Automatic annotation (TrEMBL):
Residues 167-345 form the Succinylglutamate desuccinylase/Aspartoacylase catalytic domain. GO terms for molecular function: hydrolase activity, acting on ester bonds; metal ion binding. This is Succinylglutamate desuccinylase. The keyword Signal applies. Residues 90-105 have a biased composition (Low complexity). SUPFAM superfamilies: Zn-dependent exopeptidases.
Amino acid sequence: MSLRPPLRSAYRALSLTLMLVSAQGYSFTETEENQTTAPSQAEELQADQPRAEGQGEEAEPLAQQPDEAPLPQAENLQLDQPIEELEVPTAAEETPQPPESSTASGEKRAAPQPDSPPAPEEQNRPLRLLGAEVPPATATRLAWSPSQHFEGVYSPTPVLVVKGAKPGPTLCLTAAVHGDELNGIETVRRVMYNLDANTMSGAVIGVPIVNLQGFHRGSRYLTDRRDLNRHFPGDPNGSSASRIAYSFFHEVISHCNAVVDLHTGSFYRTNLPQLRGDLQNPKVVKLTKGFGSTVVLHSTGAKGTLRRAAVEAGIPAVTLEAGAPMVLDERSVSHSVKGIRTLLNQLGMVAKFRLWGDPEPVYYNSTWQRATTGGIIFSEVQLGQFVRKGDLLGTVTNPITNVRTEIRSEYNGRILGMAMNQVVQPGFAAYHIGIQAPEEQISPPEEVTADSEQAVEESAGSGEVGAPHEAATPATDTESQPPAEESDDD
Ligand SMILES: [Zn+2]
């Protein structure tokens, strides 16, 4: 109970109270019902569902369960209802009752009952995720907890799911893998709460705050000061960060046909809204084209990043960078939302978002310009500005000696990211300059479909996801990684 007030106030500040109430409701029930094993989402959801066999084995990847094993059906919630209207049905969930009668929100909008069978002519199977079965035309909230965690202290991470009435790919949106990166949290909220399960094709899984530990402390890192985004796809026997990464990767990411991981700049740097992806991968290129008029930076991603691990597991993934840490800025959020809605349209999942026409993205390679001296940096350029070789980017002034040093561009390019005014050390990566990439560098795009789902799930089930990659890497500690400022995001 003691976790509740700070949790709630933090969420309220971000208008995310809806899912909090739900997640907490589940977790309290779960604690009463099951005190011997680590809490799992499957068990939490059973508060209002009949018990199904095999639900205690939450560490097992879902794909290892027999395909026909019964799972509790997720309740269809009206995600866009105000919190007050949802509190009553949430409380009622703690009393076991058949799913039919628990759809308290059904009167507000005619949604298919969870038990109604999917249309026979379409192969739209329920989405099996986190120990629950989400039927077509259902929006719901699930929760993910790392398989091994400090019970009673670690809070479950809310996972929003909208499963469309029609078949299609599963797109995953993840935010706040770095706990101090707020724009993505708001972006995921706006996207998820604007989807209509009754008309949508495929599914969208939205995790607004992957790194709850960091989020509560306003920190980029986990509580052990490791960077979660250097530990994917994780290791069930590794460090705490590796175990958390492993659990998230296998329980959530392995169910995705495509991933958009939302980030911001790091360490008082801000980014022009931009995608980062491995443009040698045709499916990743297809994803980047889906975002319409958005800058795209070619990068394979640091080892251990969620997007790189996903791509290596056969799941196309991009990072969407926008803005700076600890700041919510409307321009970054609205650009990101617009981009993702355009992507949903391009992937054939929604029909209604026609926001950007057909403008092509612009592809860049990039390089950093660094402060050569320490001091206070003031910039002369703005995000998105085009610069020419020799242009003054900013100055660094030593407050003790009053010596001022200029930073001048060594390239013709565009400012994709930059330091905010601050005190810098010599070598600080101050300006991220994009240089337009030649066309031949970009692989021809390849469709992203639900077809790859089976292969991915099989590989997740066998525990093989990322295994070769991990085996080749001796250590995954942050100490063995390049300094975070080398890659300002991701
Ligand atoms: Zn980040």
